[in-house]
């Protein structure tokens, strides 16, 4: 990737896209192209084709998606499949038709089977059944990464994919109904601290194991792979460390200074029992994360409080 390249970042207002834009600015890439949803509907193939034809980017980073936690995904698998499938197919196919030289497609480690071997290698893809609570989202992301793979094989385009683990950091959504586990915890504990609540309700048993990566580490990984001459079709990216949801809750409670007890609701789903991705391939190429979970939580709680004070925090979808 060259400093003068026109680089399109799809989803630049989201947590991942905004982190990628920050990393590009830090790296001296000054020719970044963005569009808001109001300016470009990625569900509309004709609009996407017209955008690519007019802007002619050299590089595209596809970070746009409809995202959500267990509750949102399990309640609306159809919508998560439909919208994310269209976003993936329109942005990737449209780029290929317009002659975009290079493309990085961002997915999620939820593409892997529910009972994949741990840590999960890239080779586990499509080897057994997916987790039902987010099956729609996973299928859409699999379609996107496979389209990149096929276009690379058939047309020689350097289109490739990163599958990040659970992400957190600046610009996250703190939606209590449809949000991801970590930002939801931050909001619940912070609001409980402010109100002086005696307890905080959390979903599940707290036993599942999860891996978390600060979004700024992911953004640096994006730039890293975009500067590889011949990257693999698919790479996992994560911290390589896992924590139980119960221990995560204790860390978030400590980071917020909340004194409330935790009330686990075992009638709610836990999701996949364990999900740690094997990041040996990207590490062997020279990338490694820099932000520890404890440091990342301190930064994210501070950022959440600043966003609340400035009335810029995202509290819903």
Which keywords apply here?
12 strands; 10 helices; six-stranded parallel sheet; four-stranded mixed sheet; globular; 317 residues; alpha/beta
List the helices and strands and how they pair.
Elements lengths: L6 E4 L4 H12 L5 E2 L11 H11 L3 E4 L7 H6 L1 H22 L3 E5 L28 H21 L2 E7 L1 E3 L12 H15 L3 E5 L5 E6 H12 L7 E4 L4 E3 H12 L4 E5 L8 E2 L4 H6 L7 H17 L8
Parallel strand pairs: 1-2, 1-3, 3-4, 4-5, 5-9, 6-8, 7-11, 8-12
Antiparallel strand pairs: 8-10
Give a description of the structure.
With 317 residues, the protein is of the alpha/beta class. The protein has helices spanning 15-26, 45-55, 70-75, 77-98, 135-155, 181-195, 215-226, 245-256, 280-285, 293-309; strands at 7-10, 32-33, 59-62, 102-106, 158-164, 166-168, 199-203, 209-214, 234-237, 242-244, 261-265, 274-275. It is globular and about 60 Å long. The model has no long low-confidence stretch (mean pLDDT 94).
Question: Which structural class do you get from the secondary structure elements?
Answer: alpha/beta
Helix count equals 10
Radius of gyration: 19 Å
Oligomer: single chain
Major sheet summary line: 6 strands, parallel
Low-confidence stretches: none
SSE string:
EHEHEHHEHEEHEEHEEHEEHH
Q: What fraction strand?
A: 15-25%
Q: Calculate the mean pLDDT score and round it.
A: 94
**Global outline:** globular
Helix content: 40-55%
Q: Strand order within the widest sheet? A: 2-1-3-4-5-9
The span between the termini is: 33 Å
């Amino acid at each position: 990737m060259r400093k003068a390249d026109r680089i399109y970042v799809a989803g630049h207002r989201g947590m991942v896209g905004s982190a990628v834009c920050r990393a590009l600015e830090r790296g001296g890439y000054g020719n970044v192209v963005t569009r808001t949803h109001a300016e470009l509907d990625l569900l509309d193939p004709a609009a996407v084709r017209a955008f690519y034809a007019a802007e002619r980017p050299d590089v595209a980073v596809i970070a746009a998606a409809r995202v959500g936690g267990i509750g949102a995904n399990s309640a609306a698998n159809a919508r998560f499949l439909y919208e994310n499938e269209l976003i993936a197919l329109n942005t990737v196919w449209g780029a290929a038709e317009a002659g975009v030289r290079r493309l990085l497609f961002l997915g999620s480690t939820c593409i892997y089977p529910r009972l994949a071997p741990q840590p999960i290698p890239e080779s586990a893809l499509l080897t057994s059944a997916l987790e039902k609570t987010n099956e729609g989202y996973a299928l859409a992301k699999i379609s996107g990464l496979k389209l990149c793979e096929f276009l690379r094989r058939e047309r020689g385009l350097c289109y490739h994919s990163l599958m990040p683990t659970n992400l957190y950091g600046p610009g996250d959504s703190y939606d209590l109904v449809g949000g991801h586990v970590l930002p939801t915890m931050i909001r619940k504990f912070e609001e409980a601290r402010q109100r002086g609540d005696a307890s905080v309700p959390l979903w599940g048993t707290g036993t599942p194991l999860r891996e978390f990566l600060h979004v700024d580490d992911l953004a640096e990984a994006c730039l890293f792979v975009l500067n590889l001459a011949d990257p693999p079709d698919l790479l996992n990216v994560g911290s390589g460390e896992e924590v139980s949801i119960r221990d995560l809750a204790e860390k978030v409670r400590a980071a917020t200074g909340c004194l409330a007890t935790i009330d686990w609701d075992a009638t709610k789903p836990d999701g996949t029992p364990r999900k740690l991705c094997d990041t040996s391939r990207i590490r062997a190429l020279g990338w490694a994360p820099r932000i520890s979970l404890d440091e990342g939580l301190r930064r994210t709680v501070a950022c959440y409080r600043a966003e609340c004070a400035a009335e810029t925090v995202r509290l819903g979808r």
